[in-house]
């Protein structure tokens, strides 16, 4: 069952979501027809792992997120690829001994640009957070010139404008 959304009740007819408990189930459920069909329709905007819950729950209030921002021009060329790679990182526990620190991922599609975030459990675990960020950036195939930032949930909850301060960058 999905948790209630913080901004209101669940929609009467939520879109069909792919639920999986293994990499085999995941691979069998994702359409193999290409990015033009939009993975978001199959996977939904949230991909929580069983070991964590998103920011809206007090259990993760000490955590944070690695945030990848995309210009709207990148939506058709990069968004599906980056979202799929993000999910594969989570399912495959790509972050080695720090994989237990990862709570899930979210994708936000907005008019001005899109965002993909990987949630972590403990923002003060600098070693773990930086390891996750470095591995995540490498797995996404991002250039060394591109910087991704890590924001603590406490900082994003109290921000006064649209940009929260990055606690770490890679």
Write up this protein.
- By secondary structure, the protein is of the alpha+beta class.
- It has one domain: RNA Cap, Translation Initiation Factor Eif4e, CATH 3.30.760.
- 28% of the residues lie in helices and 19% in strands.
- It is built from five helices and six strands, in the order ααββαββαβαβ.
- It has helices at 23-29, 40-43, 75-91, 126-140, 153-157; strands at 46-48, 64-71, 102-109, 113-120, 149-152, 168-169.
- It has a six-stranded antiparallel β-sheet with strand order 1-3-4-2-5-6.
- A hairpin with a 3-residue loop joins strand 3 (102-109) and strand 4.
- The longest helix has 17 residues, at 75-91.
- The N and C termini lie far apart (35 Å).
- Belongs to the eukaryotic initiation factor 4E family.
List descriptors.
disordered N terminus, RNA Cap, Translation Initiation Factor Eif4e, alpha+beta, globular, six-stranded antiparallel sheet, 170 residues, 19% strand, single chain, 5 helices
Itemize the secondary structure elements and their pairings.
Layout: H1 23-29, H2 40-43, E1 46-48, E2 64-71, H3 75-91, E3 102-109, E4 113-120, H4 126-140, E5 149-152, H5 153-157, E6 168-169
Antiparallel strand pairs: 1-3, 2-4, 2-5, 3-4, 5-6
């Amino acid at each position: 069952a999905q948790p209630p959304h913080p901004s209101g009740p669940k929609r009467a007819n939520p879109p069909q979501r792919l639920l999986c408990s293994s990499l085999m189930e995941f691979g069998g459920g994702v359409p193999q027809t290409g990015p033009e069909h939009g993975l978001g329709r199959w996977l939904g905007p949230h991909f929580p792992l069983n070991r964590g819950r998103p920011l809206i729950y007090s259990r993760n209030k000490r955590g944070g997120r690695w945030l990848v921002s995309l210009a709207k021009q990148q939506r058709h060329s990069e968004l599906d690829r980056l979202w799929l790679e993000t999910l594969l990182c989570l399912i495959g526990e790509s972050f080695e001994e720090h994989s237990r620190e990862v709570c899930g991922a979210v994708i936000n599609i907005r008019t001005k640009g899109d965002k993909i975030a990987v949630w972590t459990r403990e923002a003060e675990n600098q070693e773990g957070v930086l390891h996750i960020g470095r591995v995540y950036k490498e797995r996404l195939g991002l250039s060394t010139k591109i910087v991704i930032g890590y924001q603590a949930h406490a900082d994003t909850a109290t921000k006064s404008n649209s940009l929260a301060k990055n606690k770490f960058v890679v």
